[in-house]
Amino acid sequence: MTKDNKTFEDRLDRLKAIVSALEKGDLPLEEGVALFKEGQTLSKECATQLEKARNEVKIVTGGEVEDFDVDTEEDTADDS
Q1: Which residues does 16 contact at the CB level (< 8 Å), separation at least 6?
Q2: Is 48 left (phi over 0), alpha (psi -120 to 50) or beta?
Q3: pTM across the whole model
Q4: Residue 16 lies inside a defined structural domain of this protein
Q5: Is residue 57 part of a domain?
Q6: Which residue, 21, 36, 62, 80, has fewest beta-carbon neighbours within 10 Å?
Q7: Which residues of the chain fall short of a pLDDT of 70?
Q8: Segments forming the whole domain that contains residue 42
């Protein structure tokens, strides 16, 4: 975890809540600006965490990072 003990998922959940609140459009200006700033910070922190994870995967895989397929329920249903 990071120094403030928030996980990537914690940050992402908060970012989703901020986006939802901003999309409603009924916030006072000051609150909207504060949430926007918080969202920008969270977005940068998430991007940093993702890049760090990607680099760790590169190290583990010897520099090879490939996209992978995630089976969804629809995909597995089509395969049967």
Answers
A1: none
A2: alpha
A3: 0.69
A4: yes
A5: yes
A6: 80
A7: 1-3, 65-80
A8: 8-79
